[in-house]
Amino acid sequence: MRYISLPIFAAALVLANPALAEDQQPDSQVIQKLNDPAFQDNMVSVMSGFMVAMMDLPIGQFAGAMDKAIPKDMRRGDGFSSIDPDATLGDLARRDDPNFERNTEEKMRQGTAMLGIMASEFGALIPQLKTIGERMKRRMEETQ
User: Fold this and answer.
1) How far is Cα 10 from Cα 115, in angstroms, rounded to an integer?
2) I need a surface site. Which of 15, 22, 57, 124 has the fewest CB within 10 A?
3) DSSP string, 14-65
């Protein structure tokens, strides 16, 4: 599972705020917060809580139903028949990676650190992007 995309999505939401639309700099307090290790730890705790809840979802019976629904000639290997009817999503994740929870939490920690870095770097680029946009606008006007 790819949890790194969650922080990237969060960064896009944070940075695409109305302040940017009004030609203002990104809120330095937001950037500081995203780079704060305590805030990052809290984000990881929240995401870990969601992950734990998701890992308890029963998936075995759903897999069995899918196995019956997919025509035999379209199945790969054993299809879903090898999945225990009482299996949870966590059981399946741990089947491929016995250290799934620890590895996923580490990826979430890396992702939240990356979120802070991205916010800082993107904030630093805003003036340059604005200048490029203005230059492109002038050039377009000159061609008309």
Assistant:
1) 8
2) 22
3) HHSSHHHHTTPPPPHHHHHHHT-HHHHHHHHHHHHHHHHHHHTSB-HHHHHH
User: At 128, which amino acid appears?
Assistant: Q
**Structure confidence at residue 14 (pLDDT):** 54
Q: Taking a C-beta distance cutoff of 8 angstroms, is the pair 112, 44 a contact? A: yes
Q: How far apart are CA 50 and CA 101, in angstroms?
A: 12
Positive/negative CA dihedral, 45, 116, 102, 82: positive
Global pTM reads 0.57
Taking a C-beta distance cutoff of 8 angstroms, is the pair 59, 89 a contact? yes
Contact (CB, 8 A) for 125 and 15: no
Is the Cα dihedral 144, 132, 30, 51 positive or negative? Answer: positive
Q: Note the pLDDT tens digit of each residue in 69-122.
A: 888 777 777 667 788 889 999 998 998 899 998 999 999 999 999 988 988 888
Whole-angstrom Cα distance, residue 126 to residue 105? Answer: 31
Helix (H) or strand (E) holding 68: helix 60-69
Exposed, middle or buried: residue 116 (CB in 10 Å: 0-12, 13-18, 19+)? buried
